[in-house]
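FAQ: What does a ligand-bound record look like?

Like this one, built around iron/sulfur cluster:
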Amino acid sequence: MTQQATETHCPYCSLQCGMKVLRRGRTGIETAAWEEFGVNEGALCRKGWTAGELRGSRERLTTPMVRDRATGELRAAEWDEALDLIAARLRALQADHGDDAVAVFGGGGLTNEKAYQLGKFARVALRTSQIDYNGRWCMSSAASAGNQAFGIDRGLPFPLADVERTDVLVLVGSNLAETMPPAARHLDRLRERGGKVVVIDPRRTATAERADQFLQPVPGTDLALALGVLHLLDARGAVDEAYITARTTGFDAVRRDAAAWWPERVERASGVGGEELRALADLLGDTAGQGGRVMVLTARGAEQHAQGTATVLGWINVALALGMPGRESAGYGCLTGQGNGQGGREHGQKADQLPGYRMIDDPAARAHVAGVWGVDADSLPGKGPSAYELLDALGTSDADGDGPKAMLVFGSNIVVSAPRATHVTARLEALDLLVVADIVMSETAALADVVLPITQWAEESGTTTNLEGRVILRRQAVAPPSGVCSDLDVIAGLAARLGSPIPFSTDPEEIFAELGRASAGGKADYSGISYQRIAAEQGVFWPCPAVPDGETPHPGTPRMFADSFATPDGRARFLVPEFAGAAEQPDADYPVHLTTGRVLGQYQSGAQTRRIRSLPDEGAFVEMHPMLADRIGAHDGEPVVVRTRRGEMKAPARVVATIRPDTIFVPFHWVGVNRLTNDALDPASRMPEFKVCAAEILV
Ligand code: SF4
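The answer part, i.e. the structure of the complex:
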């Protein structure tokens, strides 16, 4: 019998679909449509419909566990025992090796309140610079490019529904139809209006099936396509000179660089023929020439590369040359991946940031945030290493110094999701103390010295910021199981035991109000947002500064850049992106490109979705073209071994004609493929090259 319905949001991807959570029986929950929430209008994908099942899972952790030194096994412990033990060992390690002996690793799925508290906890209670999070592996290249070109990083600088009203949508490296199906309705409505959809992907995905034009480049060559498109637009006189003069800087250098990217050169680099490239440039040029709108959206396929930032800059250059950013239903955006990928990078769990998207090496930013926290600005540590570099240094000791000896992990399953995962797992095993807070015994939790059982989404309240920059409220629908605490309780409990100079609240609304004050005046200003406003307005778009009492509240900012960009001179910057291709190219030993991605029925490392019985858990597979299968003697459904310079895995072949013959694809939700992926890093974003490396296949 239905007892109560709570309006909240999905625990998974960045669309953060609105949903209702219904209580069933004594402890169960299930999800239902929340038709009135405009972003998804009641639609959910199968992950959203089944999200409540984890609540009743036998695999749910409900007691802290501590590894027994004598037996090496995890045993049940009381909360006080577990937290006392962690605090004592952290204090001892810091006394012996310095404050940076302790690291903190967060996640892009944590609420804004948790991400904020985690950053504050690291800097104030632990005094460590060693904090970063798995969002570094999600959209950091787009964030880096957005900051460079526009002076700000908000995934979509416009509401998602603007997609329906553009005239040409170019999706670069996004499989929207499978990764966030409710968003695909915007593509269908756009086409019903007569608009065109272009998809660029090494695989003919479900999204590509909806496209009017489909380009299938070699993985890691999206930048060459962008350079070629810009070359052709300029050659046919289709760039918007008036817009470029009025609203941008740096076009001359970009124009000179693109002049060398004639179609034949692009074809050699990308495998996309000149006619296809010309057809795309003609579509974009004709549309813009007739006053129409063009929107370019990138996602992980374009961004998870050692050249991810340059690739995004290349596509931003195309959008700017056409005069689009700042026009309604046009411009450039990034489709963020994780549930709070956007908010998670704004409030301080990133190695170089303080709340409000302030930089930690900016003296004014340090002074402001320290003032809100009630500590001395000089006591705050400086910038730490990026996520992969942090993990790579765990437990090491060399001439350059010691890496961290202990790490606390919140909301991340590193063993499955890190690149070159075998190496990273060895680094985790080298730690003196690994603490993991999770809802289930993930592959990473199974390695830990202490495992802390924490609440899941329906059992707690907190805000997230969806892919549009809309701050929304996840409401608590049910009480957590006995024995389970929130991450906020863990942080506060440890801070007190570590002798933090300031207390840490465990009340999400109180923390959000403090987060607002800490963000005030920053790029991601949340100071005018409250839980009450979010509830009344179906979310509030940042920036939304507070105003003096008695004045009309700031309305929030659904659309950015109409009048100016967030750069010091208000102009967008054209920047020259140097094309170098993938860090690892196929050769005689490793002759094919390996790329990775997601499937419809699973989410990220699968720690949650692999435990939901209603979702398909088919395990990893190796997708390959029939020509490649014939050449190596592989058969559909039969096992093959994939090997790279970093490791190997075995999985059944899936033979399909929709992938390039020189490329194989393996989904990353299961342990395996990230043992093979390349840890080459983007120089600006420090994004690893998840999306392409050289591989061999053995039958
Ligand atoms: Fe919506 Fe994403 Fe949840 Fe699916 S996983 S219901 S698309 S938020």
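Follow-up question: can I read anything off the structure? Yes, for example: The mean pLDDT is 95.
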